[in-house]
Amino acid sequence: MSNQNISRYVRQEIFRGIGKAGQEKLKSARVAIVELSAIGTAVANNLARAGVGYIRLIDGDYVDITELQRQSLFTEEDAREERVKAVVMQEYLRKVNSDVTVDIHIASLDSGNVDSLFEDIDLVIDATDSMETRLLINEACHALKKPWIYGGALASSGMTMTFLPGHDKPCFKCFLGDEEYVPGEQPTCATEGVLCSTTSMIASLQCAEALKILTGSKDLRKDLLSFDLWDNSFDTFVIDKDPDCPVCGKKEYRYYGKISGAHTVSMCGKDSMQIIPSHEGEVDFARYADKLQHQGTVKYTQYTLDFDDGDVQIKLFKTGRAIIKHVSDEQRARAVYAEYIGL
Amino acid sequence: MIIIHNGEETEVEEGITLQKFLRQTGYRRVMVKVNGVQITASQFSSTELKEGDEILAKRISGGG
Q1: Which residue in A has a C-alpha nearest to residue B63's C-alpha?
Q2: Domain B2-59 has CATH 3.40.50.720
Q3: A residues 187..206 contacting B (CB < 8 A)
Q4: Are residues A231 and A92 in the same domain?
Q5: Average pLDDT, rounded, for chain A
Q6: What residues in B contact A134, CB-CB < 8 Å?
Q7: How far apart, in whole angstroms, are the C-alpha atoms of residue A130 and residue A134?
Q8: Nearest C-alpha of chain A: how many angstroms from B26?
Q9: pLDDT at A319 over 90
Q10: A–B interface: beta-carbon pairs under 8 A
Q11: Is the pLDDT of residue A1 over 50?
């Protein structure tokens, strides 16, 4: 038999849990990955190689040198050129597996785009470092009846749990309890650090669960799995459904279906603020470059426009979203956006 | 009295409840096992800690 006649997925097809029938299911499966973080890049790589037929990458960030320690597949050149993560990943995954459709959405997930990004998807993988985004995923997946897989990593510890649609199933809010999320309250990877081993572990656990869901396996993990690779501890916790849960009990959504105005988001691990306008549009980079060229250095590609006047540095995306660099104050970031781009 | 909190010996007042201990330690959203048995949030206030109890407390991991 020639190599051409051997399926590239033979090792999965002979695995009892998948088989040829399971591999066919993977081929027609559609998965969304929310953010190309360390977890997200590893998940995307794993699922593309496994032959998941359609992968939607949702991320509005660019490659930064401090991320190479853990974010697989990005290179020094990508960081030097501050290339858009989703574009780099799309190019890479197309070379890895040309059978797979890799669709990219160069923006953050928000209440305005979540319906269109999730409604034709079979499974959502959470790889975000934002708790607000994770709460939106939870509410959207509950409303749209989509399964999703939570994954979080910090330092040497990680957690993951699979959330399935169904009136008798707990959701992420059941797990959080009635305490409100307070921005800035939690430790982050920027303050506590994170190991590549931790994020890789979470990604592997999520991918195994993803393959089970997409092939219709009944062997899903029901509990929350928690580990610490430095302390050598592995534990599971039962998460009970809360009948009074505002999300899965009462359908009182706090993020999903809400229209927010222009808002500002700090970026984990980066000395920058992100401004997301209330209405996304299609920015004409040539026109902006012409407008800004007398005030500083302007260069642009198909995806981003960079402006630098020696004091202010802006990376503007096609939708109007912008990252204001070396700014940690929200008001200052909004003022810069208003002055140079216009709010 | 001494309890073991995430592997570290910790001195706490006699008869302290799990809820009070967690608050004093600065936990908010947390999952807990005492001597290997999971304690749900609704049981925190009625769970009294004893000398030598082993408390495993896990915060929610938020990073990506």
Answers
A1: A129
A2: no
A3: 187-189, 192, 194, 199
A4: yes
A5: 89
A6: 62
A7: 6
A8: 11
A9: no
A10: 71
A11: no
User: Which of B28, B56, B64 lies nearest to residue A39, judging by beta carbons?
Assistant: B64
Which chain A residue shows the shortest CA-CA distance from B37? A237
A297: Cβ–Cβ under 8 A, 6 or more apart, which residues? Answer: A306, A307, A308, A309
How confident is residue A135, by pLDDT bands cut at 50, 70 and 90? very high
**Residue of higher predicted confidence among A296 and A177:** A296
Cβ neighbors of A287 (< 8 A, separation 6 or more) are: none
- Mean pLDDT score, A231-245: 91
- Asked if residues A88 and A72 have their Cβ atoms less than 8 Å apart, the reply is no
Say whether both A51 and A164 belong to one domain: yes
A244 lies within 8 A of chain B by CB: no
CATH of the domain at A20: 3.40.50.720
Same domain, A283 and A226: no
Domain span at residue A89? 3-237
The domain locations on chain B are 2-59
Contact flag A152-B63 (C-beta cutoff 8 Å): yes
Residue A140 CA: distances (Å) to CA of A124, A148, A163: 10, 10, 12
Query: Are A76 and A166 contained in the same domain?
Result: yes
Cα distances (angstroms) measured from residue A305 to each of A62, A298, A312? 12, 7, 14
Angstroms from A236 CA to nearest CA on chain B? 9
ipTM, 2 decimals? Answer: 0.88
- Asked if the structure places residue A121 within a domain, the reply is yes
CB A291 within 8 A of CB A285: no
**Average pLDDT value for residue range B13-38:** 92
- What is the CA A50 to chain-centroid distance, rounded? 19
Asked whether the predicted pLDDT for residue A192 surpasses 90, the reply is no
CATH number, domain of A270, equals 3.30.310
> Which chain A residue's Cα is nearest to B62?
A152
Model confidence at A2, pLDDT cuts 50, 70, 90, reads very low
